[in-house]
Amino acid sequence: ASYLKLDADGFTVCAMYRPYTIRWSDVTGFDVGRVGLNKKVMYDFAPTSTLLAPRLRSLNVALAEYEASIPDNYGLAHEELADLMNRYREAALAA
Length: 95
Prior knowledge:
The structure is a single chain. By secondary structure, this protein is α+β, with helices and mostly antiparallel strands. Helices cover 29% and strands 38% of the residues. The chain has helices spanning 54-64, 78-94, and strands at 3-6, 10-15, 18-23, 27-35, 38-45, 68-70. The strands form 2 sheets. Strands 1-2-3 form a 3-stranded antiparallel sheet. β1 (3-6) and β2 form a beta hairpin.
């Protein structure tokens, strides 16, 4: 029902049986933040990305300081997952 897959092209999140893929070039990096009381791995989209409407991006930043988040930490500490995703992103963009 849910998973996170990282590969050379990007990451795929599946939540409630619905997968979606985001390319590494569409995000600026990953950090740990909060949505209300919940700790999350957060990210912003690259300025050139068209994956999220500008108004929704602005609303998310106003609410949580970031444009999007990963829905789970998949058994890792949030900081570990953010670091792992940043390493995958950096390696993919350097290739």
